[in-house]
Amino acid sequence: VQGTGGSSAVSKCSAAARGYIQDRFLRLLVGRRRRRAPLVHRGYYIRARAVDHCVQDFLLKTQSHPRTQILSLGAGFDSLYFRLKDMGLLHHTVVYEVDFPNVACQKATLIKRIKELSALVGDVRGEGLGVITFSGEDYKLLGVDLSELSELERALEEAGLDNEIPTLFIAEVVLTYMENSRSDALIQWAAEHFSQACFLLYEQIHPEDPFGCVMQQHFSQLNSALHSLAQYPDCEAQQRRFFEKGWSECSVMDMNEFFTHCTPEDEQQRVQALEPFDEYEEWHLKCSHYFVLTASKGMESSWTPLLSNMTVPHCDGPVRMAGSITAVVCATHSEISGLRRYGHHSVLIKPNVILTTGGFGEEDGQHCRMRNFHVLVKHAGYWKAGCVKKENPDKRWDERLYHTVSCLSSSLAVVVGGRTSPSSAGLGMLWLKFPETSNALDPGDVTVELVSLQPAAEPAALRWRHSTTEVIFKGKKYLFLYGGRSAMEPVLGDWYFLHTQELSCTVIPVEGPVPESRHSHSACSWKGGVLIAGGLGAAEQPLGSVFFLRELEHGFQWQTVETHPPLIPRYSHTAHVHDGKLLLVGGVWFHSSSVPGITVIDLMTGLCLDYAINVEHLEWPLMLHNHSSVFLPNEKELLLIGGGGNCFSFGTHLNPEPVSLSLSNILTSH
């Protein structure tokens, strides 16, 4: 548990070094320096932002009081006191910090040794005595085990804590490491013993979904299990807990809500522009698995820092499910792993042959951008998996993610866009040629030839997280290239029509209301046009709109597809059209009570139904984002391939095997 405090201090320090948070004291308190990934920087940014937002609100609301105090539980090497003191916010406030005795001693030694820190504390009252390892006029550092409540009470009394003045308790990922009976007792003790009290809690929720399973497993492996989760799995349970333990007001929100509603727009934009970033799914999942809670009792005026600029009501409650579809591991006859990947693309190149290219995943036991092409061949009811023979292995397959592959005939496909790293420019186009006749019964029969392309339309292709869809205009086939993002533009809303013969851009007039820019949306061919659904919009907010680009005599027209109930905004899903129904598969949304399964939209009536995916037959968490899916219309079978990602600092999860869903029940015409 002490180790988690050390590593979180290192992460905060790295985030400060990159400009996410303003904190010049962290580097003095944290010995080791490590540069963390942008995803980790964002995660620690939102945590620091939430705590600061609430602490400063408390100081503001209580500034007319002659004396107030802050009690930071499990403070570790946090710099809160030094920042507040430096900003001149502690005129009449004493800060008490409590942590394990050896942590408190280490911190006290550091403060005494470092001039910049000891100068801020000013006069030191005597040497550290007993549990009080450091004592200044407005700063006391105590070495006590928080789970020993009577010892804690005795130490705080000795240090001069006053239970009659406004007091803010802070517990930032601390209580969850204690047994519930002990953390509950602490929450109740704070409410009962202090006449004017506020409590700020930041920790994890939602243990049961795929991301939650990976998160729990990570903390268990560190031997620092998260105890709160089983009894208090969501925001509502945590809120009830505080009411039951004697607090009169309590508000709570997950970090997606906090970032969206309590962080000013210009600040959101500042943070989004600090580093090249392309891990939206994991950022939003991390934020839906952490919450901030504020509770108060006995305060003269109500303390609700989380409601100050809230314009949107809290969580719209659970998503109504019309039923569920059972997932089973796909019966494959082979031992090769090649499908543990994400950000790849899978396409049906012949009736029973699926080609998967690119992405990031596991190759030869290493995590890397994928070089090998992979093929699944269906024969006599089961799938055989194998690696594809490349006819010209010297031709560079730029190891790309988030590209598209479109089949133009039974022997030709075109690869469009994709990226290597998020800071590099997007990649261009490639032809993939397969032998016309190959009656593939075995993966070894499939060969692919790569042909580099420098078509006139190349600049249009320098993007990723876009879509390319076949459309028909005046009897001719075109590829409709839409949306995505590039190294320069975080979100694109433009489109091109590429003539399928020479891949040159063709101008075709388009009328109607232009959809807002998006990436990570889905696009399907339908009636000669394209259905675009969902995606991530300009402010990194999921979109719930569905558009149909419809063929007219002289061009195309954008039309809005109205859905009822309205489609829950999502992105990073896949989609298929069958028999007048649009199927959306997986993805990421902000409804943290459940994960997206299969959504069926009736394109005639607009009726929109959500189905959960029943995973009881799978022995591992099924993460349905950055996956690919292939729909086999004759069998009404949906194959889910790959998916997963880098789960914050909890490790990378890759779905180990393809999964099959039978959709015949939900697709039979009623």
UniProtKB/TrEMBL annotation:
Reaction equation(s) it catalyzes: 7-[(3S)-3-amino-3-carboxypropyl]wyosine(37) in tRNA(Phe) + S-adenosyl-L-methionine = 7-[(3S)-(3-amino-3-methoxycarbonyl)propyl]wyosine(37) in tRNA(Phe) + S-adenosyl-L-homocysteine; 7-[(3S)-(3-amino-3-methoxycarbonyl)propyl]wyosine(37) in tRNA(Phe) + S-adenosyl-L-methionine + CO2 = wybutosine(37) in tRNA(Phe) + S-adenosyl-L-homocysteine + 2 H(+)
So, what pathway does this thing act in?
A: tRNA modification; wybutosine-tRNA(Phe) biosynthesis
Q: Which InterPro entries match?
A: Gal_Oxase/kelch_b-propeller, Kelch-typ_b-propeller, Ppm1/Ppm2/Tcmp, SAM-dependent_MTases_sf
Annotated GO molecular function terms are:
tRNA methyltransferase activity
Which Pfam families does the record cross-reference, listed alphabetically?
Kelch_KLHDC2_KLHL20_DRC7 (PF24681), LCM (PF04072)
What Gene3D superfamilies does the entry give?
Kelch-type beta propeller (2.120.10.80), Vaccinia Virus protein VP39 (3.40.50.150)
Family annotation (SUPFAM superfamilies) = Galactose oxidase, central domain (SSF50965), S-adenosyl-L-methionine-dependent methyltransferases (SSF53335)
Q: Give a GO biological-process term.
A: tRNA methylation
Please indicate which superkingdom the organism of origin belongs to.
Eukaryota
Keyword annotations: Methyltransferase, S-adenosyl-L-methionine, Transferase, tRNA processing
What EC number(s) has UniProt assigned to this enzyme? 2.1.1.290, 2.3.1.231
The task this protein performs is described as: Probable S-adenosyl-L-methionine-dependent methyltransferase that acts as a component of the wybutosine biosynthesis pathway. Wybutosine is a hyper modified guanosine with a tricyclic base found at the 3'-position adjacent to the anticodon of eukaryotic phenylalanine tRNA. May methylate the carboxyl group of leucine residues to form alpha-leucine ester residues.
Q: Which family does it belong to?
A: Belongs to the methyltransferase superfamily. LCMT family.
What the entry lists under PANTHER family is as follows: TRNA WYBUTOSINE-SYNTHESIZING PROTEIN 4 (PTHR46529:SF1)
Q: Tell me, how does this one assemble?
A: Interacts with RNF144B/IBRDC2.
Stated name of the protein = tRNA wybutosine-synthesizing protein 4
Give the organism's phylogenetic lineage.
Answer: Eukaryota, Metazoa, Chordata, Craniata, Vertebrata
Q: Which gene encodes it?
A: Lcmt2
